[in-house]
Amino acid sequence: MKKYKFIVTLLGITALLASCGNQGNGSSNGALSSSAAEKAYVAPGEHDEFYAFMSGGYSGNITVYGLPSGRMFKEIPVFSQFPTSGYGYSEETKPMLETSFGFVPWDDSHHPDISQTNGELDGRWIFINGNNTPRIARISLSTFETEEIIEIPNSAGNHSSSFITENTEYVVAGTRFSVPVPQRDMPINEYKGNFKGALSFISVDPEHGHLDLKFQLIMPGFNYDLSHPGRGKSHGWFFFTTYNTEEANSLMEVNSSQNDKDFIAAINWKKVEEYVKNGGGTLMPAEYAHNVYDEHTHTATSTIRKEVLTVNPLDVPGAVYFLPTPKSPHGCDVDPSGQYIIGNGKLSADLTVHSFDKMIAAIEGKKFDGEAYGIPILKFEDVLAGVVKSGGLGPLHTEFDGKGNAYTTFFISSEVVKWKLGTWEVLDRQPTFYSVGHLMIPGGNSAKPFGKYVVAMNKITKDRYLPVGPEMEHSAQIYDISGDKMELIYDFPTHGEPHYAAGIPADLLAPKTKKIYRLTENKHPYAVLNPADARVERDGNEVHIYMSTIRSHFTPDNIEGVKVGDKVYFHITNHEQDFDVPHGFAMIGQNTSELLVMPGQTKTSVWEPKKPGVWPFYCTDFCSALHQEMQGYVRVSPASSDLPISFSLGD
Amino acid sequence: MKKASLIMIIGPLFLLGLYAFPLWNIVLGAPQYPEPLGMNIHIDGIRDMNEFDLQNIDGLNHYIGMRTLPKPEDMWEFSTFPLVIGGMVVLGVIIGLLGYFNKVSYKWFFGWFILMSILGVLGMYDFNAWMVDYGTNLDPNAIMKLSNPDGTPMTYSPPLFGKANMLNFKVTSLPSTGAWLMFVGMMLTVVAFFLGWKNRTPTKTKDLTNLAGS
Prior knowledge:
The complex is a heterodimer of chains A (651) and B (214). Chain A is 9% helix and 43% strand. Chain A contains 7 helices and 45 strands. Chain B contains 6 helices and 5 strands. The mean pLDDT of chain B is 91.
């Protein structure tokens, strides 16, 4: 009997253990069984799986994060001066921020997009738009530096940008605000019928990435809000959401929300391209800056272009159609197959999904429902693939996981909703904190998404982190989407206001990132490639200091003969050829930022000394155990002095 | 004897690897150098393990007052070693060929091995002497002058073979591909000798006769 008891107990324990095991392996919904921390945890010394490039919004820049850790790696200066590195302050980079309006030190950066080949991320460059003073930038993904900025004429509120076609043929920039084209002095209330919306197609040189504004489609004066390229079967088309088809010019929040349906504009850019190649289009006088940074001279140049080729859509039959879409659609997203075009009707609860096949059939059948300024409008019912009855409010943006699912943000109801392409059924929903704008799945805007994580970028932070006064960073959440249900695994603040982001697997980028610039490839006209060539030269009231740095001294470090009223150029070449050994430069009382000079690079800082004396400069980047010794002096004599220039090191 | 001679011809040819591959490799790792710095010692000079390593080693060494690493023209060894190795290859192949045509005895094979071993030891001795000088003979105005616990000035000679700690660096010094090829080649000459010795009875008298005759 005792023996039986023992066996029964043993069986009981075994059963208990087995059931515990089952619980542990079961669904990941329960808070107890969840291991969110493990999923977001990247151990010290380990690397993240993905890079995430987040737009900075009103910071004008791009920030680089790791996924799933949410760790920030870098801020890449793009449209804004960046005193940390001297971008936009150094003589070499000031031209990057030149525009037809002169030097503009800031912008509002919105939608990054990584270059693609055959619809898949290739990781050569990332593009981003400046929204306020319309510009498009190209950033190298080997140096993570801004290499080119092109201004967009005839555009205002450059918002439906910067999205690329599936072989990076074009980066596309659409105007959010319609304006008189060309600009002229006219009454604002004559907007209707007179203002125009320019959609710009900027070609990307396949080898060097250089940008060239090929043509502008001059569309009716609506607001072109967001856009995405067709891909796969719809490659050759581009889709733009519009609002304010009412063409209101005041109290827009009411007056441009009257129409029950606005449009998605479908542009057959291949047709327009062919038209232009055959000599079509009208050259219009314009003024826009084109700024190019050369990696070998470490210097940017800015040129003003004087003409732009414009195309009237009515001159290219079959190139442009309007797809009626309910309620001022915001995001315009195309699924990885290129079949579905999603209009996120921001004043609605539902998502409208158009079918590319149906659109083509309707065009071929000439089933039009009238026209707008001569552009055929397709019948809503003819192009509609389905409606996602989400139950949420205020859909803004949709991304895809490559497994047949779509994920849409709902701004008003603060949530991400997962739904199925084709059946339109809602599969899951997760709250965000709070009022989510964009979301990002790495490669989610390509033919091949990497559907492991989705990042929700929120507009409102409130109580998510320790309070820091009225102004806060925005919050973001990371969800694991590898299972059937989304799982919130991490929450982190993001710099500026990320409007959109682009993610890419780390193994596509990390191996080809640059560690240093080669000194032997430095073609800067003021570089010193050998410390023996370091020198100081006077040219009238300009003094050029050809200076080199290596741990831990400047050559030369004692300079005399500079006078009040001189304009002193410090041309500093970093002679290090070792990874992560920058040297900095700062001069007391200088009316500009410091410089951070990377190994092998040359940068120039200007100083206009105002007072006689002996003024120190020093290295601002803790470069070695003798960093504190890395300093020098410039003797400044009165303007009337005739002390000749002299310089030395170690005498 | 023909087989032994063929091996004797092949063995010295392995030394040609020294013209392509480094003889020795010294690697310096430190916390802030997760990708260590390294130098490859070739018979005709010291080269980077990874690009810019020598420049960066010199950059670090200047703190402790070490001279910059020698360029090929700074040391007679780097012009002499290639000639010595070339000479030994030619000599070894000739001995093998003479053995093949029964002009010399298998004992010559061992003779070559002994000569090569003596030269090798001399080379190592010279190399070590350079390292000791390089690590001890420091600039009196060095930025950092450190002392051992017993008060004697700290020196920085890398080990000839194996690992050592030098300040924040872990230094590993080991033979590299060229040395291993040389080792294989030299062992082959020993094999050649052994085979020649094993088959000595039928050929011995003939060999001696031939030798005497020539």
